[in-house]
Design goal:
Layout lengths: L4 E6 L5 E3 L19 H10 L8 E3 L5 E5 L3 E7 L4 E3 L2 E3 L5 E3 L4 E4 L8 E5 L30 E3 L22 E7 L8 H9 L2 E3 L7 E5 L14 E2 L4 E3 L7 E3 L6 E2 L3 E4 L5 H5 L6 E9 L5 H4 L8
Parallel strand pairs: 12-20
Antiparallel strand pairs: 1-4, 1-11, 2-3, 3-10, 4-9, 5-8, 5-10, 6-7, 6-9, 12-19, 13-14, 13-20, 14-17, 15-18, 16-17, 16-19
GO molecular function, one term: ATP binding
Pfam families: CT_A_B (PF02626)
Protein name: Biotin-dependent carboxylase uncharacterized domain-containing protein
């Protein structure tokens, strides 16, 4: 029903609908997508009494503003930002009751990049392949928010939990990313691998939901040419011809022809989602996984999703 909806008043730099993504479809060429900072997404949903898979709004740097057509319990998590209801300050990181007709605004991020706005009942966009997530690479899911767009809300569930405070990990001044080397670390010289773990890297302003790009030194290659296209995992650290690692995030392609020097385990990717351009990046070795026999590693097959 149209009363169970909100109207976009200010979409911000990039605001998308996100849930936990499309899991298990990489073999069909479908990226996972979903919230980049999944702990923040899950927390926002818990604060308003939703299941963790309910869809939220993911904002980027400048926040967003929406006008509610029904009363709603709302929570904003992720990157800390000012929250207002009809211009009056409201709590960040807590459940807030917003009356029908009121303007809810999540302002610009004070620290970090992405904030998450949850509504009791969740955002009821049309599911595509089992998910309501917006995928900016493939175009699956609802379009990014624009001025005047109307989005439906689901029916509220149980009451929001009564909590005094919630955990917040904050945004670190340096992004430290453990890396499991392989499967294509043999495409780089020993000097190149030392550069990976000792180089002065920074987050590039060209980063997006597809991948976190880095600025800094180039990794020296041990061989020329490119691979036949092979599977790319979430967290893959792919090295394009300029030699600067790119960390694949939720909207990454499912295949690629540049060598993957290592993989960052998923629990560390939420921090990458909140790293602003210019943030120092340090890659720390976690050893090397068993990626299969050398004969397989030099072919076109390899890393699954």
């Amino acid at each position: 029903m149209t009363d169970s909806a909100f109207v976009v008043v200010r979409p911000g730099a990039l605001t998308t609908v996100q849930d936990l993504g499309r899991v298990g479809l990489a073999h069909l060429g479908v990226p996972r997508s979903g919230a980049l900072d999944q702990p923040a997404h899950r927390l926002a949903n818990r604060l308003v009494g939703n299941a963790e898979r309910a869809a939220t709004l993911e904002t980027t740097l400048t926040g967003c503003a929406v006008r509610l057509r029904r009363p709603a319990t709302v929570a904003v998590t992720g990157a800390p930002c000012p929250v207002t209801v009809d211009g009056r300050p409201a709590a960040w990181g807590a459940a807030v009751r917003v009356p029908a007709g009121a303007l809810l605004e999540a302002g610009a991020a004070a620290h970090g990049v992405r904030s998450y706005v949850a509504f009791d009942g969740g955002v009821e966009a049309e599911p595509v392949l089992g998910s309501r997530a917006t995928d900016v690479l493939s175009g699956l899911g609802p379009a990014p928010l624009v001025d005047g767009a109307v989005l439906r809300l689901g029916a509220p569930g149980g009451p929001a939990p009564d909590v005094d405070g919630v955990p917040h990990r904050g945004v670190a001044p340096e992004l430290v990313l453990p890396v499991v080397l392989g499967p294509r670390d043999d495409w780089f010289t020993p000097a190149g691998l030392r550069t990976l773990t000792t180089g002065d890297f920074r987050v590039s302003a060209a980063s997006n939901r597809i991948g976190l790009r880095t600025e800094g030194p180039s990794l020296e290659r041990a061989r020329d040419g490119e691979l036949a296209s092979e599977g790319m995992a979430l967290g893959a650290l792919q090295v394009p011809p300029d030699g600067r690692p790119v960390l694949f995030l939720a909207d990454h392609p499912t295949t690629g022809g540049y060598p993957v020097v290592g993989v960052v385990p998923e629990p560390y990717l939420a921090a990458a989602a909140q790293a602003v351009p210019g943030t120092p990046v340090r890659f720390t070795p976690l050893g090397r996984a068993s990626w299969g026999p050398p004969a397989r590693r030099t072919g076109a097959g390899g890393l699954g999703h």
